[in-house]
Specification:
With 363 residues, this protein is of the alpha/beta class. The chain contains 13 helices and 14 strands. The chain folds into 2 domains: 3-98 and 346-362, Enolase-like, domain 1 (2-Layer Sandwich); 103-337, Enolase-like C-terminal domain (TIM Barrel), CATH 3.20.20.120. Helix content is 41%, strand content 18%. Strands 4, 5, 6, 7, 8, 9, 10 and 12 form an 8-stranded mixed β-sheet that branches. Helix 7 links the parallel strand 6 and strand 7. The longest helix has 22 residues, at 76-97. It is globular and about 60 Å long.
Amino acid sequence: MRITGIETLLRGQVALVRVRTDDGVEGIGQTAPYQAENTVRVLHSMVAPLFLGRDPWDVEALVDECLRTHYKFPSSFLHRALAGVDTALWDVLGRAAGQPVSKLLGGHARTSVPMYASSMRRDITPQAEADRLQQLVAEQGFGAVKIRVGEAMGRDADAAPGRTESIIPLTRHVLGDAVDLSADANGGYSVGRAIRVGRMLEEYGYFHFEEPCPYDEIEQTAQVAAALDIPVSGGEQDISLPQFQRMITGRSVDIVQPDIGYIGGMSRARKVAVLAEAAGIPCTPHCANDSLLQVFSLHLAVAMPSCSQYQEWSVESTPWTQGIYAPMLKVEDGRVAAPTEPGWGIELEQSFVREALSETSKL
């Protein structure tokens, strides 16, 4: 089997990838969202030429070769583009083998995955946020939720005056003790402020504190993790496997969160999950929207022993992710069932294909 064509389908913030082979097997993937047009340019100029004519079963070796070839350009855009081709190739392999990708990753470690309802909003009052999360718990059975505190990369600023100090206790009061709570600072705090907020989270029984300090300042995050009892998580922005190794072995984080779209695809995210397993810490892949990345993250979480905790499930409905694929994943009683169909187990909506701007690299 050889790769004969790599097509991108660009619509707004999202770019999907279709890989075709000489055996007639096609696979579907996706780049990381946002700046998708620039990512597509990188994909066709720097990534696709290295995969055309090659054997899809060599996917991990090809991913490694691509990054070594472009060693002078270790950029986020390169990894975002690589993720699109990598994930499409895993779909090819699953379809060719007649198995879900999760089976190819090592088999099913679990039959379903518990999800936490992940809020992406800071433009909402504490009361309105607590009320809508309570409704989601009642309707879909979530056993855990995540709120946003501080301001993203905010240098100790808050999204609104006093919002953090209000939303932490209020969410606990509204949702009660039966629901596990966590909080995401998106790199918004200095060490001192992060520790103070972390102690408040501990007081109200939150179960993890995400990205308290700027993501690349792993020494700062390590100080916060050492000072607190609440588990500290991070890793969503990182693209370097050696950086993940430093984070894990240096205990900068207690929970590691690779993003399949950012890190370069399933091949590399899987390796982070294995590093986490060896170190005895949980892996919770970052997944901030309901595009195909939600599907990829489910397969990883089903297969990897280290993905043992609640996994992220965005509760926001974004217009640009709608009408892309079917069947859509569904949360029932707070969990999503393990996939059973070959590959990713989904097909593209033809309306998306018609609307998207197509570009193809061929042999």
